[in-house]
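User: I'm putting together a small comparison set for a docking exercise, and I want a reference complex before I start. The sequence is below, and the ligand is magnesium ion. Could you produce the 3D structure with the ligand included, as structure tokens?
Assistant: Of course. I'll restate your input first, then give the structure tokens for the complex.
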Amino acid sequence: MAELRLTGRQAAAGLAAGPIALLPSIEAMHRRRGSPEAEAAALRDAIAAALRQLGTLAEDAQDDGAGVLGFQIAMLEDDALSAPALDAIAAGTAADEAWQDAIAAQVADYESADDEHFRARASDLRDIGERVLRAVAGACDESAAPPGSIVFGEDLTPSRFLATDWSKGGGIALTRGSASGHVATLARARGVPMIVGIRADLTAIPRQAEALIDGEAGVLCLDPAPATRDSFLARVTAAKRRAAAAKDFRTRPAVTADGTPIAVLINVADPREVDNVDLAACDGIGLVRTEFLFHGRELPDEQTQYRAYRRLAEWASGKPVTIRTLDAGGDKPIPGLTIEGESNPFLGTRGIRLSLARPDPFRTQLRALARAAVHGAIEIMLPMVAAPRELAAARRYLDEGLQQLSEAGIAHRRPPLGMMVEVPAAAIAVERFDADFFSIGSNDLTQYVLAAARDLDSLAELSDPMDPAVLRLMARVAGHGAQTGRKVSLCGDAAGEPKHLAALLATGLRTLSVAPSALARTKEAIAGIELDRAAT
Ligand code: PEP
Ligand code: MG
């Protein structure tokens, strides 16, 4: 076959070459059918089996994987998911057919949603659908793709992603998929190149093709001509050399070319992520997204949270650990906690607004944080603060929690209370906020300054953290910190992009927090920056 170039949208950067692995579609499954009661029991048993499998996978999963699986468990536990299938079974349909139809209808609903977040969740729903269907048919395994292969298909389920060994390379090319879906998040965290939205007729793709995937350019090349293959492999070698060179910077302190030290901390989601990070390579934890802890079957209790926060504090051994209180809502709904049906969830009851509207989980989290603070330098950070009274209200809840702990004789310590600066109002009038420290959330600040939703691929160009309006606000916050002696950092994704660093440091920022996988390249880029030049 002649070389075939297919294009799609970037979901995770990186280059990979390997044999193609076409994703199998789920085959029609034949099984003996019974009475409606027997079919209903078969479906219930299959759901229970699927939940057990997901529970086991979640226990073993690393990084964001457990969060994805927790989300699937919550979806599958919701009776609303199985109700239409059980109704159809009562009317005489077999369990497998009823389940397939019910899931197909819900996938179609998700896919036609206006909200990108819901569209992205269709893949989780398909994943759950397949797992239960296999269990109904009595076949339970979720096959992994062969290591090192370029997986090509309509969509890849999160569980198949997690079952696959990506340490040998490989990549993902999908005709559907979403850059903001769970698989894309996992792919970025593991450095697996991924392209979504490829226009191709999958039935015409040869099963044995060789493939080159360029996640940055969004290009998949099948059966490349020798010249294409050679130049691609030369790029792979150069990229590997760059990554190896950057590795030397990983454990060194970050210093600009003209000798200014820059603190580089890490962002974490799952507390288990730090197990793979060398503490010496970072200056602490600049952001813990605690949403992760809240995606299980139920809201975590005080003791569960205390253990998770204490683990981070002990790992950091005295370096700062900035833990953000629950930032649910917007693109991160939590079933049963966030408010449903808001017309614009990004401008809705999210972050601190939700914590103040539903204070019980907030109280629990603050107590757990104050207890864990005995074991290290925990700092509490509030998300989405827009008005000083929100900060004041949060401080009152913290005071109340400390008082309760004192009365109960439980060991605790008062952590500093800081805030994210991600709402333009907080950046413009930062001096109104009596926070102990500030951390700029460039992801949200950019979307709110430019009025461009962060999860819309079509607005990606407009949603630029390097826009002068965004940079001016960052400089304002950094200047306020320098004047008043309060810590200011930046923990949004902009800090993990080497080409943005000169402009970020030029705003006066001297503390950045990035994904652990970005530590080496961030420090390498900092070493090449002349601050005097960056400021002009
Ligand atoms: C941000 O908005 O930049 C940020 C760090 O928070 P999140 O991405 O979790 O909204
Ligand atoms: Mg944010």
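The CA atoms of residues 148 and 170 lie 4 Å apart. The pocket of magnesium ion (ligand 2) is lined by residues 383, 422, 441, 443-444 (CB under 6 Å).
User: Thanks, that's exactly what I needed.
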